[in-house]
What does this fold into?
Amino acid sequence: VQLQASGGGVVQAGGSLRLSCAASGRTFSIMAWFRQAPGKDREFVGISLSGGSTYYVDSVNSRFAISRDNAKNTVYLQMNSVKPEDTAVYYCAVRIAKLYSGNYHVPKEYDYWGQGTLVTVSS
It folds into this structure.
């Protein structure tokens, strides 16, 4: 399984950016985004479930949106109204088996990870 993340770059505060993550070979029922800022732990951003549900960490709720295109095995992270504190390397991750909702935010629960794409928000 390979996950290819793309779309990172430099964006001004208040702007928008869309990240993509393409999975090779199959569709996954659970696809998530995490991020890691310099010197900090990897942080859960949001998750997309096969039934169409999405959940987000409070700090990005109403600003970020996850969508997916199952025909392309791709999940997207639309980032709007970005802030300097959104600066991080963003990773996509997938899980094969079911996942207890209380563990959505736990990195070790995911089976495969993309290589990360850097998002820098300038003030």
